[in-house]
Amino acid sequence: MDGQVYGAWFVQMLQDWLGPRCFVRTLEFSFRNLMFVGETLRCEGRVVEAPEDEVDEVTVELTATVVGRDGAPDRVAAAPARAVVLLGRADGPAA
Predict the structure, then answer these.
(1) In 3D, which of 23, 28, 17, 16 has the Cα closest to residue 86?
(2) CB within 8 A of 39, min separation 6: which ones?
(3) pLDDT band at residue 48, thresholds of 50, 70 and 90?
(4) pLDDT tens-place string over residues 12-28
(5) CATH fold for domain 4-86
(6) Does 67 score more than 90 pLDDT?
(7) Rounded to whole angstroms, how far apart are CA atoms 54 and 71?
(8) Which of 25, 30, 43, 68 has CB atoms 3.0–4.6 Å from 74's, for a disulfide?
(9) How do the domains of the chain map onto residue ranges?
C-alpha cells in the first residue's frame, strides 16, 4: 500500500469520529511495517490534549495496526502518529 493512504485513513477516521466539519490542521506519522492488499487495518485514536483556551482544538494520538485473521493485532503499520484537529461548529473556526 502507498504510504499516503495511511494519511487518508487517519483523516477519514478523524472525520467519522469528530464530525464532517472538523479540520485536520496538522498530521504527522511514521511508517513501521508494510501492509498488503487483502489485509485489514485498524485505525485508533485518543484525545491527549484539549487546551482550555482553545476549546475548538484537540490533539489526538493515532495508531494504525494490521489485524490478523483472528481479529487480534498483528503488527503496527504506522506509529507514532499525531494530529491537531479543529472542531467544527456552525460558527467555529472549521465551519
Answers:
(1) 23
(2) 66, 67
(3) very high
(4) 999 999 888 889 999 99
(5) Thiol Ester Dehydrase; Chain A (3.10.129)
(6) yes
(7) 38
(8) 68
(9) 4-86
